[in-house]
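Q: I have two molecules that I believe assemble together. Could you output structure tokens for the complex as a whole instead of separate predictions?
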Amino acid sequence: MANMLEVKHLGISFGGLRAVNEFELNIKKGALYGLIGPNGAGKTTVFNLLTGVYKPDSGSIMLDGDDITGKSTIEINKAGVARTFQNIRLFKQLSVLDNVKAGFHNSHKYSMFAGIFHTPSYRRVEAEMDEKAMEILKVFDLDKDASYLAANLPYGEQRKLEIARAMATEPKLLLLDEPAAGMNPNETQALMDMIQFVREHFGMTVLLIEHDMRLVSGICEELTVLNFGRVLAQGRTADVLNDPQVITAYLGE
Amino acid sequence: MTVMIEKMKKKTRTNNLINYAIVIAAFAVIQVMKSTGNLSSLLNGLLIPVCSYIILAVSLNLVVGISGELSLGHAGFMSVGAFASAFFSKSMLDAIPFVPLRFGLAIVIGAAAAGVIGVLIGIPVLRLRGDYLAIVTLAFGEIIKNVITIFYIGIDGNGIHVSMKDKMSLHLEEGGNVILNGPQGISGTPKNATFLVGVLLVLITLFIVQNLINSRDGRAIMSIRDNRIAAESIGLNVTKYKLMAFTVSAALAGVAGALYAHNLSSLVASKFDFNLSILALVFVVLGGIGSIRGSIIAAVVLTALPEMLRFLSDYRMLIYAIVLIVMMLLNWSPKALELRERYLGRFFKKTAKEGK
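A: Yes, here they are, computed for all two components at once.
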């Protein structure tokens, strides 16, 4: 099967620090892929490179056959990459529904004029957005909270809403930055089921950063381990987790 | 589940309708007071300026409350609207004798001129954030004021003459007309503004701002306010939407200026100084940032109050300052909000958790 994401020789420096060096990654279509590594290994930096927040000094990023290297965040999102954040970034003063509808912004359009004068096209497009947003919220079991302000949701639900918003941009590749951070074991289990479901339901390719080894070994088929900005090990989850190098990186000698 | 969406929509709609209703009710009350002779000439003279301040406050709220950027140069946009429209009205005095058409065009021109200046200033300035943006908009406000002050513009049979020196250097022909007279501004603008026109313009402003907020573009503007990085990650063009909010706001401030100018026989640029920008910001902050209704009420109360307190003579500004502090406390202190919730909550059954 063809690859959804192909990353070659990716690297970036901040001053004298080589934060990511010679990073390689190939993710098959429909795969659930994990990116792990000790604190400060450069995992989130890789995400920021993939989504255009940072521009790489070297290397290339191909998404589904298109070159997205060095493009802006907006262009990369339009090309089909959506993400969530390690520290939750919701539109807190908007309702849960509006958070998801904001994700439809580029796929559902009408003019500013139509918006001000409530023309038929405004009504039609808004109704369409409402319907689709509710469908997505239902998948994440947030439909009953649609009218709440995002800021008023409990922590776990906020994480789910972030994924829902990312899904609204209709991506090909979903990047999850520590989706289970701060969750208890029950919540983590529910999240794992949900990620699996999203992947099957939407046919999504998922790349996730995670510290929770239970989650990683439970759902990821393949892993890349990053240490000091370099790839330490890569391959099938069970093999990688038993690699002595990886164990050393996590636990010390 | 569609029931829930309908409910949310109905709530926003009711909220918006209440604002229109407040304005129309106030208009009706004033009209009744007028016809029964209960309106003092002092208050009567305030009616049009209040309308123009409401428009200014609502337009500034679009930038400060909805877009989340601090602008301290709104008086500048107001003055652009005021001078552009007054210039048009005065030079077209004979060409278009039909008042509603001339005044209508003047308002449109005032809005367009302020909108264009808004875009020109917005493009470089909106790259800045927070305090820096505030300082630069403040500077631009002052620049606009001073630029208008140094221009002399006259019209005669040969067309438009412009000078930056004095009236004489315009070299107008016999029968020529000086329109913009440097620091003395524009005098002899036709006083076309009426209270009815003012109220109509307030309603139009409310219509534009409220509907914009509840549209796709408004959602994008508020998303960017709430989290810029997340907004970019879902493909929202940050610069475009910040500029949109800024420009619409500048154009509406221009409308406020046009209304203001057509209520005065002489218009001077020094009226639109830093103090006016701050006054507009005070309306927005005291009314509650992001609350359109608050802006309307604050603009009315804070414009009428100093005049109503005239009988206190020396103590007038003291009382005014105390009222500002009390309003601030009532609007923002958690305890006051709690009390308000408890007592008003009985009348309006509102669940605190639900969205706007």
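A: One point stands out. Strands of chain B lie at 152-156, 159-163, 177-181, 186-187, 266-267.
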